[in-house]
Amino acid sequence: MATDYATLKKGGFMRQKQKDHFSLRLSVVGGQVSTEQLVAITEVANQYGHGYIHLTSRQGIEIPFIQLKDIDAVKEALAKGGAKPGVCGPRVRTVTACQGAAVCPNGCIETEELAKELSERYFGRELPHKFKFGITGCRNNCLKAEENDLGIKGGIRVSWIEDACINCGLCEKVCREGAIQIENGKVVLSQEKCNYCGRCAFSCPTDAYEKTPGYLVSFGGLFGNQINQGETIVPFIEDQETLFRICDAALTFFDENAKPSERFKFTIDRVGKDKLDAVVWKAYEGA
Amino acid sequence: MMADLGFEVNERVDITDVVCPVTFVKTKVALEELEEGEILQVHLNEGEPVMNVPRSVKDEGHQILKLIENGDGTYDLYVRKVGD
C-alpha cells in the first residue's frame, strides 16, 4: 500500500530525509505548553524518537525520528498528556503569541485567550495555501506581527484625565512619537502621531490616563522565499467582535480568490489591494 | 527650593553616573534603605533613564510625587516609599 504522505502531513508528520521517518509537529497554541504535555512529549521522544525535540521558528515543538509504524502508538501516548499532532500544508497554521498583558509589563492586550479563540475558530481550516496568524501584545512587537499573513498587534488608546494629573510631565518625556505636548498645564494629545504604545499611561504616576485596549491588524505578511511586511488597512479596533469579523472576511477573501499555492500577499497583489480594502472596511464597519 | 516641594526629602541618590539596568538597581537599593512613607530624591539623566526609571519605580508600587526638569539635561524625581 502506498503511503499517503498528504494525509500524514496534514496531521503534522513531516517527512524526513531518512526513509519512513517523520518529524512530528505538535499542536501548540500561543507558545504555551503545559508541564503535563512536556512529560508526554519527553516520553514519546525517548521511546519513539531520538531523545530530543526541535523548537520551530513559530513556537512549535517537533519530535524528529518518529517511525511510520509507530504513528498510532505515538498519538495515543501524546493524548495521555493532552498533546496532539499539529498541521502543515495548505491550511491555517499555528497561532503564535507573546505572553501579553497577563504577564508582561508592556502588554496592552490579553494574548493567550485570544490565541486560543482564534485557534478554535480557524486552526487547520483548509485554504489554497498556508495561512499564519500571529499576535503580539504591544508595539515592541516581540512576536513580529507583520511577518504573518494576518498579524494582530495590541495597543492602548489613551485619554487624559485632567483631575488626576499632577503635571509631572513624564508622559511627554516617555512618548517616542512626540504625540504629547503640555501646554499651560494641560496635556494636548495628537491622535495622528499616537501609535497606541501605551507608554504614557504605563508611566503615569497617578494613572491620569484612561486606557482602552485594542488591536491593529496587518495583512499579507511573508517571511520565507519572499519577504513582505504586512500592512494595516483599518484603524485601531476596540472590540473582539470586530476583530473576528475582519479575520473572517480576510480568510474568506483568501479562500475565494487565491490560486492553489499562492500566499495571501500575492493574491492581494494579483486581485488588487483595493478589493481587499473594501472587504476589510466593510467588516470593520460592521457589515 | 526645597520649601517649594511641600514635603521633606529623607534621602538622595544620584544615578547620572550609571546606565541601565544599574540606574534602576541603584534606585531600588536606595528605596530599600528607607522606611515606609519616607521620600527619596533621584537625580537622573534625560533620555533612557527618565523614560524607564520612573515607570519601574511605579511598577514596584511606590508613589511618584514629582518630576522636576533641571534644564541641564538632568531631572529630579521624588518618590515616596510604599510597603516593605
Average of pLDDT of chain A:
95
The CATH superfamily of chain B appears as TusA-like domain
User: How much of the sequence of chain B is in beta strands?
Assistant: 25-35%
Largest sheet of chain A: 5 strands, mixed
Number of helices of chain B: 3
Q: Helix coverage percent of residues of chain B?
A: 25-40%
Succession of helices and strands of chain B: HEHEHEE
General description of the model:
The complex is a heterodimer of chains A (287) and B (84). By secondary structure, chain A is of the alpha+beta class. Chain A contains nine helices and 13 strands. In chain A, a hairpin with a 5-residue loop joins β3 and β4. In chain A, α2 runs antiparallel to α3 and α7 packs antiparallel against α9. Chain A is globular. Chain B has a single domain, classed as Translation Initiation Factor IF3 (2-Layer Sandwich). Chain B is built from three helices and four strands. The relative contact order of chain B is 0.24. The chains are: A alpha+beta (287), B alpha+beta (84). The interface between A and B is medium-sized, with 13 and 13 residues.
Notable features of this structure?
heterodimer, A: alpha+beta, Alpha-Beta Plaits, Sulfite Reductase Hemoprotein, domain 1, 3 domains, 5-stranded mixed sheet, 4-stranded antiparallel sheet, B: 84 residues, alpha+beta, Translation Initiation Factor IF3
Concise summary:
Chain A is of the alpha+beta class and 287 residues long. Chain A has nine helices and 13 strands.
